[in-house]
Design a protein that fits this description.
Layout: H1 3-7, E1 9-18, E2 24-30, E3 37-38, E4 41-42, H2 50-62, E5 64-69, E6 75-83, E7 86-102, E8 114-118, H3 119-125, H4 129-145
Parallel strand pairs: 1-7
Antiparallel strand pairs: 1-2, 1-4, 2-3, 2-8, 5-7, 6-7
Length: 153
């Protein structure tokens, strides 16, 4: 088994935007194998920092253009990656990704569906409990820190 599979490290992007009426939305996409709702994520890439990998995965899997917010991951979660006849335990470090736009065409467009959800609905749709917690916690902190949000505490 390749080293990156044995290590089980992955890097993901939590794509978010603010609607005109101030609601937070999260983009989820379907996994290729099971069709469940997930975030863009992938294996380490030699010579790339973890946040750069997350940025690239957001583009390749969902056609998203934007920026990573902050220098550190906002959290991590674990899941079992199904590969052939084996399930590899993975730990995904998640980076907050502010979406500027979605392009019309991207590498995996025909293999996945993408959809925007209100943050609370997105948290309920993902199956990984750790990812649910990251979505809930991160969206709450984004609301508090957003200077354009007139209801900020």
């Amino acid at each position: 088994m390749k080293k990156k599979l044995r290590d089980g490290k992955q890097f993901g992007a939590l794509p978010w935007r603010t609607t005109e009426d101030g609601r937070r939305q999260i983009m989820l996409l379907t996994s290729r194998e099971t069709g469940r709702w997930v975030i863009p994520k992938g294996w380490p890439i030699k010579g790339r920092k973890p946040a750069e990998v997350a940025l690239q995965e957001a583009y390749e899997e969902a056609g998203l253009i934007g920026r990573i917010v902050g220098k550190r991951a906002v959290g991590s979660y674990r899941y079992g990656k199904r590969l052939a006849n084996v399930v590899v335990p993975c730990k995904v470090r998640v980076f907050l990704f502010q979406v500027e736009r979605q392009v019309d065409d991207w590498p995996e467009k025909e293999q996945r569906e993408t959809q925007w959800f209100d943050a609370h609905k997105a948290a309920k749709l993902v199956r990984e409990g750790g990812l649910t917690e990251i979505i809930d916690r991160t969206c709450a902190s984004v609301r508090r820190e957003d200077p354009t949000n007139r209801q900020a505490s």
